Amino acid sequence: MSTRNPPRQYAVSVLATDLDGTFLPLNHAQVHCVAMRRLGEHFTQTGRSLVFVTGRHYASVRTVMRETDTPSPTWIICDVGTSLYQPVGQSVAYEEVMNYRDHLDTLTASFPLARLGPLLGKLSGLRFQEPEKQGRHKLSFYTEGAELEDRVNAINTIIAQEDAPFSVVGSVDPFNGDGLIDVLPRNVDKAYALRWLSQKEGFFQEAMIFAGDSGNDLAALTDGSLAVLVGNASDSVKNQARSRMDESGRSDLLYISRAASTSGVLEGCAYFGVTFDS
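The structure assignment produced for this chain is given below.
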């Protein structure tokens, strides 16, 4: 739990948030539903931007938005930072930002992702995720949660041997404890996508709050924006986030909330000076 007072008031204009376990609670307790309503109303009515940043693929995001009545975000970053969507006009539909897709194409032109899949498929302890969870720039696997680190290391060994332009992100599914592994273009992750978007749209890192709860949020949590790590994050993720922020001299930018998921996001926003009407 973070107990420091914020060093100063921040002019927050963007909330970028992970979905599962962060903006979306792992249960539908009324307290979290109220928190989501307050967050949604605030970012809709004030003109501040709301960005969903998730490992889910786009169709899955749209499904969960309908099922949970989440507010409509300004942008949706999917597939652990490897795809970006924006609204179509004033409608509720979204379209992929092709400039970002083309940009990622250039990063992997020397070694297409399809060439790497068969090599990794031979590793023991890995299971390909469903076809709809694979992406143009993302290759995803399941593994046992207890074996996550070993499997990530094995994949990194093959990537190094092949000199392939990719990196690996591992996390644990908050719903069932499965290990989740994503192979992405080198250095591309949620933080990378947010930096690209912020440069395109002209907002600054200290004007953005990023909220997350798991291993694939660590890069974005520690990339220089205001960071909210919700209370249901594992001790391992909390310790890694603290360590990275301490090493970079930015520990004052990290807030670890008392409350879990959606309520923790609300708490963190308030900590960094975002005020909400009762």
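Interim note for the steering committee: The first strand starts at residue 14 and ends at 17. Residues 30-45 form the longest helix (16 residues).
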